[in-house]
Each structure stands twice: as C-alpha cells, then as structure tokens.
Design a protein that fits this description.
Blueprint: E1 11-12, E2 18-19, H1 24-27, H2 36-41, E3 54-56, E4 72-73, E5 79-80, E6 84-86, H3 95-103, E7 107-110, H4 116-127, E8 133-134, H5 146-156, E9 161-164, E10 173-177, H6 179-182, E11 197-198, E12 205-206, H7 211-221, E13 225-229, E14 235-240, H8 241-246, E15 265-268, H9 273-284, E16 288-291, H10 299-311, E17 316-322, H11 325-334, E18 338-341, H12 351-355, H13 361-372, E19 379-382, H14 388-396, E20 401-404, H15 406-409, E21 419-421, E22 424-430, H16 435-438, H17 452-455, E23 464-468, H18 473-490, H19 496-504, E24 510-512, H20 515-520
Parallel strand pairs: 6-7, 6-20, 7-15, 12-13, 15-16, 16-17, 17-18, 18-19, 19-20
Antiparallel strand pairs: 1-2, 3-24, 4-5, 8-14, 9-10, 10-11, 13-14, 21-22, 22-23
Helix pairs in contact: 3-4, 4-9, 11-13, 14-18
C-alpha cells in the first residue's frame, strides 16, 4: 500500500497482476482530480461548465483500441454502433447525409424546412437505398447538348450519365455517356444523341438483381456502370463499379431488425399541421421522429409527443431541447423515448444572447443524463461539439449520442455546393434560427403557435455563415470514431457503458481548467502551423 491511511482497492492488469491504487488520503486530496459529484453537485461557486472547462483524468490502459466498444443508445429501443447523429438542419441533413451516416453506423435526422411531401420523399429515398445501388442518378435526355454535359460534369464531379426519355429517372433507358464518349467532342452544341452509347450496345441488369450478381456482371463485362431496368425498359437504378468498391463492406451500418433497411429519423414541429406531416413520414418508413423545438418544455410539445405515441407506437419519439431535469421529466412523462439536450450553445445559435435563457452544455448533459437514466431514457448531446475531445467528454458525461451540425456541414454529403473564398473551399451553413432559415419555414421551431401576435415580428436566434470543406463522410466518420476510442482508452474505459458506470460511481475524475490551462492544452508557441485532421 502506498501510504498509511485508507483502503487500497487494486486494479487487475491484463497479465493477472493486481495493480495498486493510491491511498485514500491522496485520492481525496485532489491529486487525482475530482469526482463528478464534487464538480457538478457540490458546486459552491454555482458555476455551469462547458466542454472546454473540463479535462478528464487519465486511467490505466489494459486493453487495445480494437477492444473498445463505442456503441450506445439513441433511444430506448435503438442502439447505434457509432454514437453520431446529424442535425435536422437544412444545410446539414437530407437523404444523402442520412444514407451515409447510417452506413457508417450513425443516423441522420431529415430537416423539416420543406413540404411534408418532400420530407417524406427524402425519408423514402433512405429506406429504399441498397448498398451499391444508385436510385437517383443524374439523367440527361437525347436533346441535351455537349455543353450541358460539360456543365454537369464540372458541377457534380463525375462524367457518366444515363440517357432517358425526358431526361428523368424512371424514363425509358436510351443510352449512356461516359468520359470516353465526350473526350473528343469539340462542338458544344452537339446533341447527346449524336455521341452517346446507345441502349442496344449496353450491358443492363433486370430489376430485382442482387448486389452480388451485379458485381459479377460488372466484373465480366468490364464496364464502369451497370444500368438496372424494369420490364418496360425504364431505368430504376444505376450500379457503379466505384460505388461497389466503396460500399462493399459496411458492417456497422444502422439497420432495422425486420427488413434490414437503413435507419433514418425526421424532424417535425409542434403545430397542428405537423401531425399530418408525421403521418406521411410514418407511411414513408421513418424510424425516429424528433419533435424539434428550441425550448422543449411546452404544452405544444407535450401534446405532440402524446399524439405520436398514441397513434404511432412503433416509431420512437425524441423530445427536446431541454437543459434541466424538470424539463426532461415532463417530456419523459409524455412518452419520449429519447431527449435532446442543449440550448443556445451551437456555433450558429444566438438564443442565449437574444433570450437570456439556456445553459452551458457540459453541465446540461451531466444533469439531464443523470436524471433521465432513472427512467431508462437516453440523451443526445446536441450542439457545442467542435472536436473528438468534445464528443468523448459528452459521452463520458452521460450522453448516449452526440448530435452535430457544423462538424458535418462541410462534408461532401451535406446539402449545397462548395465555393471558394480567399482560396479556401467552403460550404454554406446556417442556424435554423437565422432569418434566412426562418423564411423557409423553420420559424415553427422557435414560435410554437401560429397566431398573428406570435408571428408578426421575427426574432432571429441564429446566424448564417460558412464552414470549411471536410471531405467525405466515408473518411471523416471513421476518423471521429477512432478519436473517441483513443479518448476512452486514455481514460481507462473499454466502452461508453463503462465510462458512464464510472461516472455515476464517482470513479471517473475531472478537473476544471483555467483559461491559461485551456490555452496550454491547444496548439501554442508556434509562428505558424497547419492542422490536418486525417
């Protein structure tokens, strides 16, 4: 024993040798950091903490990265292999983001800044997705010109396009064009019909073909693209050799247990019209409905949750946003299967500044998670995430998953197009409380009734901006996952579940960082540097 006072509870190492802990006197002195109870509950300074305020104390590493389990629950009934959720924002999550989040083990929540029919169609596209099958390829008509082809090629970044009657998906397949067909075209007015590879020279697959069979056809034919047609010769999908290679293995993909379709969520508001929206989303196959309000503890949201649970009991409902246990209790009593925690802490959110209401996120996540745990209701830490360190802290403070907006808005899969500013490749990103987003319909997230008195004057609670290019989710999400594994390993935790068990047993230790300590913990003392994530 190291010292003369207190018990010494050993830790068994991987080689069977018991490692001694420090004595209780040292443990209780603050030399090993402080317990969550000391920091968040016995809080004499009455201070709320952000992720940056906290630092976790290291633990003993007796296991490898490959032994760490980062899976966690987003709702009572749904567990994700990657605890990441893309935010229901119109510059973050539509079908492409949702598909790729699910393939990587997370989930996407489709935003509601569109008509109910459009949102249901977005959900349907996710549910109908099959790995390797492109169900919405960009099509052209025989009457399009070479100039049109070059423009689409420059905008979309690829050069192969199916040619159909009317230039739409679902039209009769007439041919295909690839880079080989356009390489020597000099006349920009030449019609596609004059240089496309016609239907009779194409290798095509019939509707119902399996991915394995399609892969074999592509290998034998040595073609880059394989159109899939129905009995009437209409295009129903396109299979690309590159996509087969990219999507060959997605062992962590988030799928429902019954029909193995990808999981997807969608957001609705709390107004009466949103009940009809919910019906369309359920008919489209949505797995999770997020009742989306900046302040979730309202009669409007409670009524919405009760309606959803009474009419669609098989669909999980997430309520929020909340930052206190009393708010959480009301939503749990209404039937919420999960809670969204965070108010005014997103990078584009100004709620705390404008409304003087909210809470620092680390404190909000800890207190709400600790309370909701009594009812078996998981928590999503929504907002304030700027790094893998923040994700690790959120999970260690009790969150089941983290919801990200700005972290994902710069990826290839986010809606919108890239643009350059001062030589930097950017994508537009805006808060749903910005005036630009409110004009598209997101006002209902901040104003819950539609009376003239409530809607006559708009009060912005967000801003519009831009975020830097982060590349594709296929590389970015594995980077985030590995970063979280490193964080849990350094903290001596084999899983998110173990980290949270240690949290509530006061075994996980933290310290509060001074502003100088926060500066010291980041890059400093350099004239210049470049920061590459992966």
């Amino acid at each position: 024993m190291n010292g003369n006072s207190g018990e010494n509870h050993g830790v068994k190492g991987t080689n069977g040798v018991t490692l001694e802990n420090v004595d209780d006197e040292t443990l209780n002195s603050g030399a090993e950091g402080f317990t969550p109870s000391q920091i968040f509950i016995r809080n004499p300074a009455c201070v709320a903490y952000t992720y940056d305020d906290l630092i976790m104390m290291p633990g003993h590493i007796g296991f490898g990265l490959d032994q760490i389990d980062i899976s966690s629950n987003i709702t009572k009934n749904i567990r994700l292999q990657a605890p990441f959720v893309s935010s229901p924002m119109d510059t973050v999550t539509e079908h492409e983001m949702a598909i790729n989040m699910a393939l990587q083990g997370g989930i996407g929540i489709i935003h509601s800044n569109m008509t109910p029919e459009e949102q249901a169609a977005e959900v349907r596209r996710v549910k109908k997705y099959k790995n390797g099958f492109i169900t919405d390829p960009k099509c052209l008509s025989p009457q399009h010109t070479a100039e049109d082809v070059f423009r689409e090629k420059s905008k979309l970044g690829f050069s192969s396009f199916p040619i159909t009657e009317g230039g739409k998906m679902g039209g009769r397949l007439l041919g295909i064009i690839s880079n080989r067909d356009t390489s020597f075209i000099e006349d920009p007015t030449a019609t596609v019909e004059s240089f496309m590879t016609p239907r009779e020279r194409l290798v095509v697959a019939k509707e119902g073909i399996s991915l394995t069979e399609a892969n074999e056809m592509i290998k034998v034919s040595k073609k880059g693209k394989l159109p899939v047609i129905n009995a009437d010769g209409e295009l129903v999908a396109l299979i690309a050799r590159t996509d087969l290679q990219k999507n060959r293995d997605n062992p962590l993909a988030s799928k429902d247990r019954v029909n193995k379709q990808l999981l997807v969520g969608a957001a609705i508001g709390t107004r009466p019209a949103d009940r009809e929206r919910a019906k369309l989303l359920v008919a489209a196959g949505v797995d999770i409905i997020v009742v989306d309000s900046s302040q979730g503890d309202s009669i409007y949201q409670l009524e919405a949750i009760r309606f959803l649970k009474a009419n669609f009991p098989d669909v999980d409902v997430i309520g929020g946003n909340v930052v206190t246990p009393s708010q959480a209790l009301h939503l749990i009593q209404a039937g919420a299967d999960g809670l969204r925690v965070g108010m005014g802490i997103g990078s584009i959110c100004t709620t705390q500044e404008i409304c003087a209401v909210g809470r620092a996120q680390a404190s909000a996540v800890y207190h709400v998670s600790k309370f909701a745990r009594k009812y078996g209701v998981p928590v999503i830490a929504d907002g304030g995430i700027k790094s893998t360190g923040h994700i690790t802290k959120a999970l260690a403070l009790g969150a089941g998953c983290v919801m990200m907006g700005s972290m994902l808005a710069g990826t290839d899969e986010a809606p919108g197009e890239y643009f350059y500013q001062d030589g930097v490749r950017l994508k537009r990103y805006r808060g749903m409380g910005s005036l630009e987003a409110m004009e598209k319909g997101s006002e209902k997230r901040y104003v819950w009734d539609d009376s003239a008195a409530a809607t006559s004057v708009k009060v912005a609670q967000g801003v519009s901006g831009a975020v830097q290019d982060k590349g594709t989710l296929r590389r970015y999400i594995p980077y985030l996952m590995q970063g979280v594994r490193h964080g849990l390993q350094d903290a001596g935790c084999r899983s998110v579940t173990e980290a949270q068990a240690k949290l509530y047993d006061d075994q996980l230790r933290f310290e509060i960082r001074s502003p100088a300590a926060q500066r010291e913990g980041n890059v400093h003392g350099l004239h210049s540097y470049s920061k590459r994530l992966y």
